[in-house]
Amino acid sequence: MKSLTWILLGSLLLAGCATSTIATRKQERIGSYSALTPEQQIAVDLGRIKVGMSMDAVYIAWGKPSQILHGESPQGPVVTWLYLVTYFEEYYYWTVPNYYGCGRYYTAPYLIYDYQPRGYVRAEVNFEGGVVKEWRSLARPGY
């Protein structure tokens, strides 16, 4: 009985670690994928999106957006999906160690580096009427 509990616990942990891929998202929304044109299916399979694609097609190609914004234009409601990414930026700073050596106090500043996380919008997709009106990918800041 104890081993069965460990097996169930392990399987739950592994199930929780499942990652979202194009293949898993296609299976999740197989009806929407089947309704796409052959050209759109090829683009989705390659992880690309095109103007005129549905929200489901973008979800299958790129996954769940980090943020969803709602707005309005003269043509009607607008939905914007933002895809955020985090990267680590290297930064340098001076430090002064304090320690005793050979009976005397010694300090000497030196330059060291560390990393800090930075986030940015990698891509945004604008939908009008449930289809892609426009999209753009953005370069990482500083590149």
How would you portray this structure in words?
There is one protein chain. The chain is of the alpha+beta class. The protein has one domain. 31% of the residues lie in helices and 43% in strands. It contains 5 helices and 6 strands. The strands form 2 sheets. The chain has a 4-stranded antiparallel sheet, with no helix packed on it. A two-stranded antiparallel ribbon has the order 3-4. α2 runs antiparallel to α5 and α4 packs parallel to α5. The longest helix is centred in the first third of the chain and has 15 residues. The model has no long low-confidence stretch (mean pLDDT 86).
What does this entry show, briefly?
The protein contains five helices and six strands. With 143 residues, it is an alpha+beta fold.
- How far apart the termini lie comes to 57 Å
Tell me the radius of gyration. Answer: 25 Å
Integer average pLDDT: 86
- The number of E-state strands comes to 6
Q: Pairing-aware structural class of the strands and helices? A: alpha+beta
Helix content: 25-40%
Taken from the alpha-carbon principal axes, the silhouette is elongated
The biggest beta sheet reads: 4 strands, antiparallel
Q: Can you tell me the number of structural domains?
A: 1
Order of helices and strands: HHHHHEEEEEE
Kindly estimate the percentage of residues that lie in beta strands according to DSSP: 35-45%
Count of DSSP-assigned helices: 5
Order of the strands making up the biggest sheet: 1-2-5-6
State the low-pLDDT regions, or none. Answer: none
Keywords, separated by commas or semicolons:
single chain; 143 residues; alpha+beta; 4-stranded antiparallel sheet; two-stranded antiparallel sheet; 5 helices; elongated
